[in-house]
């Protein structure tokens, strides 16, 4: 049921992957979905979110981009690029033409489907859409808290319509309510969520952005080779190494370097920060993790942790952390980013 003062159009616009395997998107007009049982219809943004309809094809230019529009937001993740290019060999099937991408969205509920009378969300409420957009809730992985391993999991932006569109129907009990005092841009990229002293490693041009995101120290990877960068990390961490390494890039080399950066009893986290943050999985042909020798891991007392994405509880907890001022996004304009790249 929709509110009487909400006018929902019969059609809307979306950015679709028109040539999967290539960097290519197309703006198409689609029929507005009717929310089914246990679903809600979410308005993601007014159109057009881009000043130029051709701009979504620049998705390869960024790791994270905020598409800012009226009241709501969507993030762009490197995972979206992998799905668009069909570059993840581990995915079970190639992306189909016409796929609406995106899996980091904030929107407003505009209509409730049948069977949602007891839903925790209501019309007019802001909600978040995650990589996992729906689960069965009853298979063994679901019951044990491994949502992403659900036997019938739905992935936003991959064989399920994603967030690069005006409207989307999503599972009512899986969207995440957004705290009223949390800005949508912070909710869309709620990814810091870990109270640690951070050493950021990236290209020197990103130092200010990395520090603004909470890093206490910054290391310019262009000023080091493969061995010296590891030594620099250990040196910065009082000569002992770090307690945890979060691998946020889709680089096999970074995965291999992470182990030598650890202190005794340290942990390498591959794929997720707090089980809610999508980070880099290497694309193309899968490779084993170099440098992950059993003896090295044993003598360090090191732990390797990996998880696909988080649960509903993880999402709720990190949004609460953000609402208490624990993180803030650093939105950049598309034009500004392109200009900075020359």
Task: Give a verbal description of the structure.
The strands form 5 sheets. Strands 3, 4, 5, 7, 8, 11 and 12 form a 7-stranded antiparallel beta sheet that branches. The chain has a 3-stranded antiparallel beta sheet with strand order 2-1-6, with no helix packed on it. A 3-stranded parallel beta sheet has the order 15-16-17. The chain has 9 helices and 17 strands. The longest helix has 12 residues. 20% of the residues lie in helices and 23% in strands. The protein has 342 residues and is of the alpha+beta class. Strand 15, helix 6 and strand 16 form a beta-alpha-beta unit.
The percent range for strand residues is 15-25%
The number of distinct β-strands equals: 17
Which parts are unreliable, with pLDDT below 50 for 5 consecutive residues or more? 48-71, 190-195, 272-278, 333-342
One letter per element, helices H and strands E, the order comes to EEEEEHEEEEHEEEHEHEHEHEHEHH
Distance between the amino and carboxyl termini? 49 Å
* Oligomeric state of this protein: single chain
Helix content: 10-25%
Structural class: alpha+beta
Global morphology: globular
| Mean of pLDDT | 79
In this structure, how is the largest beta sheet organized? 7 strands, antiparallel
